[in-house]
Structures are given as structure tokens and as C-alpha cells.
Design goal:
The complex is a heterodimer. By secondary structure, chain A is an alpha/beta fold. Chain A contains 15 helices and 14 strands. In chain A, strand 10, helix 9 and strand 11 form a beta-alpha-beta unit. Chain A starts with a helix and ends with a helix. Classes of the chains: A alpha/beta, B mainly alpha.
Chain lengths: 452, 350
């Protein structure tokens, strides 16, 4: 008695399934990123200039949507950052990017290489610095909000979590707010380009300078237990090989389940090292400086990601005498404040609504510069589509823009030299300000070789 | 026979109607949703399967576990490693994950024979807390906090390279990749639900409930309490492993941050919201949780309120426990039973 009814139900369901699956999805319900109606669409294949051979969307992309995210004369970009928690200090990076977008629009927009003027729109998402949350946020930006590109996304592990997805979708991720050596793999992941110097190059710049005074330095290394910190670890290990320098002790700090590096610093202090390399970021970085016992007085270096006035102010005076590297202007430095571009930054950022403390904080400068990288690519790109913008970024010659120091020259050459910023100078914290201790050194084209 | 069958058929059809509607909705969903939302809904399925496993253990058998996040993670890592190292098909890799988790579940289930209630919860809590630490301890294999990409050898830019796994639909289906993945996940979830439904309605299922209600009485009635409890832990863990395996393939990446204690609590939330000791309850709970995360938190809540979303979820849970202690399914059943009783009272001749 039950069987006929069951059979009828099964047949009904099977028929429904077959009909529905045979129908497929209507074109109208496809991804929001499809945008064939934009005025700015110019028949292009991303073959922008001499770097055309580097990214060829016809060969590299299954479904290339070069002008997605451009509506009329507005280019929508997205970013992901931690808005709360111990890494919320990086939210200031995004505040800098946000202010840059506002300031650019206040000035009438960007005059791109195709002759048109575009305004920018920024969509922000929060992943709490947790790489497990990043994919959903980026999917929302790309598929729901339909952004043209991701700009200035925070975090090495977070960017790694979406690298393949974005590369496979041929969506650019520009000026990553991380200097992991992973971003040197441009041949494998051409849609990603870093916005900071390589952490390996940074470490080598410091060690090159250190070697002249302390050729037998004993280094205590505190590194973040992810690809960010491990890039320092690998580069330093490679550098000291065959030299008199040694790694006296090293400690890994886990950003997701440890809140204070105090015990790690205490352990390193007992190593007898005369150099303390702080390769961690966020609020734990100044916390590491605070944790240095009075009995230990090493020459201390902090990661470039930590070298902001905002982060140093959290060290409660323990930042005095600390070293770092620098490629951008410092709005908190009285010397740099005399520079025209710093004055313009202070005026434009103020007009865009940025608080004075943030203007001088240094963290916002990084985000501002990420925006400048994207805009410079738009200005130089002969047509505004995703592949051409990326190809432009991979074929820069002697460029200097945004808040980069005047001596910094941006040169790139596809997978051979995918790093935008490779010129660094050594700075020291004196009286609450960064001061130069060594001129800028160029590592142009060497960043990939310097990685461990 | 024919005289009694005629009035029975419409009643059965009426009872079957919600199920038919549910299946139709599930099948039609990816055809009407945008790919972004198809991906979101697909992401709820691993959680639903793991919650189904927890429900078998906690809802039906009365053993409290807040350590299923660890088993979920174990299944995810096992699946990821099998795909990466041995290049096995997805289904086989998930099966390995399920077997590994079954073993782990049995190992945890053995001491659970002597530990009950809150003490068992504490032991499983320790498992959940330790798991991410273990993953980070063996970061050379697991990728630690950075994570481990689930990859296969694919051609890209003229060379064969290790790249994230993908769900490529066969051409004959005419489906997009997101739709194909959804149907595969849904099919596997359906298999899991049928298995659990069969267990629950079998003699073993009755034993589970008997043990939960009165262990001594169950033993006196001839139920092998020890074997049943250990078996339940194993099956429950295997289901968590299947969910974890699907999650690993869904994200094409596993990292320690995906398997924290909070994940174990989300399974409990799904079970409580949907309705403990009901087959469909955990799935409904998972959908509600997914809607909360992907719609309420991501789309509705203003930016300033987003950090408070766990608080809102907690409040929702408290309200559910107070207003509908049986969860959605349990409470619906109670309400329906009350209406039926009232109707029967009304039709009973004086």
C-alpha cells in the first residue's frame, strides 16, 4: 500500500530535478561582476605595452571580465582588514586608503591612461585578521559587490587564503599590505602584487648595515608564527650562513592564540644576544619592546610594519634607540614635514576627514601609498581593464609617486622583478622621531634572490 | 482493504507535502540564486552534517560533547592530506577522513563510558582546545596558522603546477561550477541524513534513546550500553569528519583558525536552535546559523554593530531555549500535537 505512493513521490522528485538541472541558470542571475555595458569598455585583451606577454587574459583566464567593477566613470575597489582586536591597528592602513580615495575624488578623480577621468569607490570588509574568515569576505567583494580589484588587503596569511581564488578568477589584488616573499611568485600568481618591500629585502638591508659595525652580531629573533614572520626567519638564516653573525636564539609568536610576547622576550633576553630583531606586527610588536628587561640592552630592530608613530607610542618610551627601515615619507618627522608631498598629504588627508593623530601616525601613510600605487597604474595604463592595469604594474620604469621617498625608484619587470619597492634606508628612533642613520640602498631586482 | 486505503492516501500525501516542498526548494535553489549565494548556502552544508553527528551523540544518546570542532578539523586535515599527498578522488579522501574520525571518536568514547554529564563536557572541551595547538605544533605537515592549501596538479600558464582543487562539472550537466559543487555537497548530506534516519529508527536508535533516558533500565532491558555508547561516539565523529572533509574541499584550504572551540559551540547552537533529538533539526539550525552569519551579520548589521554579533547570537540562543526549548522542529511538533489533540477533543462525541 505504501510503495505506490513512494514511487510516485520519487518519480515526481526525479522529474523536478531533471527539469531544473536541464534548465541551467538564467544569464540574468550570473555574477554581479559581469559588466559589459560600461562606457569605458574598450576592446582590449590586456595587451598594455611591452609587458603584454606577462599576463595574457586570452590564455590565462577562463572567463575574463576585464572591466568588471567599472560603472560609467566609477571604479569600485575593495579591501579586507581587521577592524577590531589586537591587530585593529592595521585598520588605520585602511583609513589611509579610504582617505586617499576621498582625496582623489575631491580633486575630481583620476585621469587614466585612456584619457577618461574616473572616480573611485572603496568597499571595506573585516576579517578580524583571521585567514579562515578572509575567503568569504573576498568572495563578497568580488561576486556580490563586483569590485574591479582588491587594493591594500592586510595580512600575509589572509592574502594567501585567497590568492588562488583571485588568480583563477583573474581579479587583481594590488598593493598587498604585506611583504611576504610569497609575492615574488609572480609567474605562478600574476594577479597579485605586493605594496610593501619584501620582508627578506628589509631584513637584508638591516643586516647589511649592521655588518659594518657588528660583523659578529649575535641575533635574538622574535618572529610571527606565519608566513610573515617566517620570511624574516628564512632570510636571516640565509644571510648569516657563512658569516660571523649567528642566531643566538629565536622564538615564534602565534598571532591567533597568544596575546602577549612577554615570556618569549624573557627567553630571548637570557640568550646573551646583542641584537634583538622584532619580526612581529600589530599591538604585540610594541608590547615586545615593553617586555625587554632593563638588564638586556641589545640593538633592537622592529619590522617595517611596526615602524609607525602609532605603534611606537604604545611602547611606553621603550622605542627610544630602536632601528627600522623606511621607504616612505614620515609625516611625523619635522624634517619630512618640510617636503612638498608631505605638506600636500597633510592638507589632502585633513580635507578628507583624517584626524591629526592619524595623519602623523604613520600607519595611514602605508594605506595612502597603496592607493597611490593603484592610481599610478591607472594613469599609466593605456586602457582601463584588469589585465592592462596589472601589466602596467609589472612594467614600471623609474616611477616615484604617492608618499615614496624621493630617492626611491620603482622598477618592475614581470616575473623577473615583481617587487615595486626595493629601496630602503635605515632609521633610528630618537626623541620620539625617526631619524636617518644610513642612506637608502637599492636592491632593485634582487628581492626574490634574497629570500631564504 | 480498498475501503480503508482511500481516505489514508490524502493524509499521507499531506504528511509528505512538506518533505516534497523541501526537496524541491533544495534542488531549485542554485538555479535561482546568484553564484555568491549558492556558494554561501553550500558552505552551510558541512556545518549541517557535523551538527547532525553531534545531534546523534548529544540529542539522542545524551552524551554531551563540546569537542566536535576538533573532530571536524581532524576530518578536514585528513581529507586535505589525502588529496595533497596521494591525489585520491574527493569522495575517497572524505571517506578516509570519516574512518580516521570514527577511530578518534571510539578512542574518545572509551573513557566516556566512565565519565558522564558535565565531566564529559570538560574532557571534550580539552580536546577542542588542544586541537588548534596540535595543528600548530606540527606546522610542517599542517601549515599551522597560515594553513595548508588543498591542491592538485593542474596546467596554468603553460606549466603543470600545484593549484587549489576545483569542482569541475561534467559538460553534460550544463551546470556552473558553483551549482555542481552545491549538488555534490547536497547529495552527500542527503546520504548522511538517510544513514542517521535509519539508525534512529532502528533497534540501535531505540537503544540510544533508552540509554539517554535511563542507563540502568536500558542495561536491564538487554541493551549493550558500552558498545552502543562507543559506537555512537564513533559514528558521530565520522559524520563530523565528513563535514570537515567537505569544508576542506569547499575552502581548498585548512588552517588552525578554522577549528577553534567556537566551532564546537556553533555545532551545539545549530543542534539547540533546530531541535535536539530530531533528524531535520540540526540542518535547520545550521541554516539559521548560516543565515545569521551571511545575511544578518554580513549584510544587515551596521558596521559599528558587527563586533557585537556573537552577543546577538547568544541572545538568540537564550530566547530560543526559553521560548522554544525543543528547538524549531521539537516545538513545531509540540504545537502540532496540541492542535491535533484539540481537534480530536472537538470531534469526540459526547
Amino acid at each position: 500500500m505504501h510503495r505506490p505512493l513512494t514511487v510516485r513521490l520519487a518519480a515526481l522528485l526525479a522529474a523536478t530535478t531533471l527539469v531544473v538541472t536541464a534548465c541551467g541558470r538564467d544569464d540574468g542571475t550570473d555574477s554581479a561582476t559581469t559588466d559589459d555595458t560600461t562606457e569605458t569598455t574598450t576592446a582590449d585583451d590586456g595587451s598594455g605595452g611591452e609587458a603584454a606577454a606577462f599576463i595574457n587574459p586570452d590564455e590565462d583566464c577562463d572567463d575574463y571580465q576585464g572591466t568588471a567593477g567599472i560603472e560609467g566613470t566609477t571604479i569600485k575597489i575593495g579591501t579586507v582588514r581587521p577592524a577590531a582586536g589586537p591587530y585593529a591597528i592595521y585598520d588605520k592602513v585602511t583609513a589611509g586608503l579610504d582617505a586617499f580615495v576621498t582625496a582623489t575624488n575631491n580633486k575630481g578623480g583620476v585621469k587614466a591612461g585612456d584619457g577618461k577621468t574616473y572616480t573611485l569607490e572603496l568597499v571595506k570588509e573585516d576579517d578580524a585578521y583571521d585567514p579562515a574568515q578572509t575567503p568569504a569576505k573576498v568572495q563578497k567583494l568580488v561576486e556580490q559587490d563586483g569590485v574591479f580589484a582588491i587594493v591594500g588587503q592586510i595580512g600575509t596569511a589572509n592574502n594567501l587564503a585567497v590568492r588562488e581564488t583571485l588568480n583563477d578568477a583573474c581579479v587583481p589584488s594590488i598593493a598587498l599590505a604585506t611583504g611576504s616573499t610569497e609575492w615574488g611568485k609572480a609567474d605562478e600568481f600574476p594577479w597579485f602584487i605586493g605594496g610593501l618591500p619584501s620582508y627578506a629585502t628589509e631584513a637584508v638591508a638591516f643586516l647589511d648595515w649592521l655588518k659594518t659595525d657588528q660583523p659578529a652580531a649575535k641575533i635574538a629573533l622574535l618572529y610571527q608564527d606565519d608566513d610573515f614572520g617566517k620570511a624574516y626567519q628564512a632570510a636571516i638564516a640565509k644571510y648569516v650562513e657563512g658569516t660571523e653573525m649567528t642566531i643566538a636564539a629565536e622564538q615564534a609568536f602565534n598571532p591567533l592564540n597568544e596575546t602577549s610576547p612577554e615570556s618569549k622576550v624573557a627567553d630571548l633576553a637570557s640568550s646573551g644576544a646583542d641584537v634583538f630583531f622584532v619580526g612581529i606586527g600589530g599591538a604585540p610588536c610594541p608590547a615586545a619592546l615593553r617586555s625587554v628587561p632593563a638588564s638586556w640592552t641589545p640593538l633592537t630592530y622592529v619590522s617595517i610594519t611596526c615602524a609607525s608613530k602609532t605603534a611606537m607610542s604604545l611602547a611606553q618610551g621603550k622605542d627610544e634607540g630602536v632601528y627600522s627601515t623606511q621607504a616612505t615619507m614620515d609625516p611625523a618627522s619635522t624634517e619630512d614635514q618640510a617636503d612638498e608631498r608631505v605638506q600636500a598629504f597633510i592638507a589632502d588627508a585633513g580635507a578628507a576627514g583624517m584626524a591629526q593623530a592619524d595623519i602623523e601616525g604613520g600607519v595611514t601613510t602605508a594605506g595612502w601609498n597603496f592607493g597611490a600605487i593603484f592610481v599610478r597604474a591607472l594613469e599609466l595604463a593605456p586602457t582601463v581593464d584588469r589585465a592592462t592595469v596589472m601589466n602596467t604594474l609589472y612594467s614600471m620604469e623609474g616611477e616615484n609617486f604617492g608618499m615614496l621617498r624621493p630617492e626611491v625608484q620603482v622598477n618592475t619587470d614581470g616575473a623577473e622583478d615583481p617587487w615595486l619597492i626595493e629601496d630602503l634606508r635605515i632609521i633610528k628612533r630618537v626623541g620620539g622621531q625617526w631619524t636617518k642613520v644610513a642612506d637608502s640602498v637599492s636592491y632593485d631586482g634582487q628581492s626574490n634572490d634574497l629570500a631564504g | 482493504m480498498s475501503t480503508t486505503a482511500a481516505p489514508g492516501v490524502p493524509a499521507r500525501l499531506l504528511r509528505a507535502a512538506p518533505w516534497v516542498a523541501l526537496v524541491v526548494v533544495l534542488v531549485v535553489l542554485p538555479q535561482v540564486l546568484q553564484p555568491y549565494w549558492v556558494n554561501r548556502v553550500t558552505g552551510w552544508i558541512p556545518l549541517a552534517i557535523a551538527a547532525l553527528g553531534l545531534n546523534l551523540l548529544t540529542g539522542y544518546n545524551g552524551q554531551i560533547s563540546v569537542g566536535h570542532g576538533a573532530l571536524y578539523g581532524l576530518g578536514a586535515y585528513a581529507t586535505a592530506l589525502v588529496v595533497n599527498e596521494w591525489d585520491w578522488p574527493f569522495l575517497a579522501a572524505i571517506a578516509v577522513g570519516a574512518v580516521v574520525c570514527f577511530g578518534a571518536g571510539v578512542v574518545i568514547g572509551l573513557p566516556a563510558l566512565r565519565i558522564k554529564g558535565l565531566y564529559l563536557a570538560l574532557v571534550t572541551l580539552a580536546v577542542a582546545t588542544l586541537f588548534p595547538q596540535l595543528v600548530e605544533q606540527f606546522s610542517d605537515t599542517t601549515g599551522g596558522t597560515t594553513g595548508l592549501a588543498v591542491t592538485s596538479l593542474q596546467e596554468y600558464r603553460g606549466r603543470m603546477r600545484e593549484r587549489s582543487v576545483k569542482f569541475e562539472p561534467p559538460e553534460w550537466t550544463g551546470l556552473a561550477a558553483d551549482q555542481w559543487r552545491y549538488y555534490l555537497f547536497l547529495a552527500l548530506a542527503a546520504v548522511c541524513f538517510v544513514i542517521v534516519a535509519n539508525i534512529v529508527s532502528s533497534r540501535v536508535g531505540r537503544s540510544l534513546v533508552a540509554i539517554r533516558d535511563n542507563e540502568v533500565a536500558a542495561e536491564v532491558s538487554g541493551v549493550n550500553v558500552a558498545a552502543t555508547k562507543v559506537f555512537t561516539f564513533g559514528i558521530s565523529a565520522a559524520l563530523a569528519g565528513v563535514g570537515g572533509g567537505l569544508l576542506a574541499l569547499y575552502n581548498a584550504r585548512v588552517s588552525s583558525g578554522s577549528f577553534t572551540l567556537a566551532v564546537s559551540l556553533y555545532f551545539l547552537v545549530a543542534v539547540v536552535l533546530g531541535g535536539p533529538a530530531t533528524t531535520l533539526g540540526p540542518a535547520l539550525g545550521a541554516v539559521l546559523y548560516g543565515l545569521f552569519k551571511d545575511v544578518v551579520e554580513a549584510e544587515v548589521l551596521p558596521e559599528a554593530w558587527k563586533p557585537a554579533s556573537p552577543l546577538l547570537l547568544g541572545a538568540l540562543l537564550v530566547v530560543t531555549v526559553l521560548v522554544a526549548p525543543g528547538g524549531i522542529v521539537g516545538t513545531t511538533r509540540q504545537v502540532r500535537a496540541r492542535f491535533t489533540a484539540r481537534r480530536l477533543r472537538g470531534t469526540t462525541p459526547p
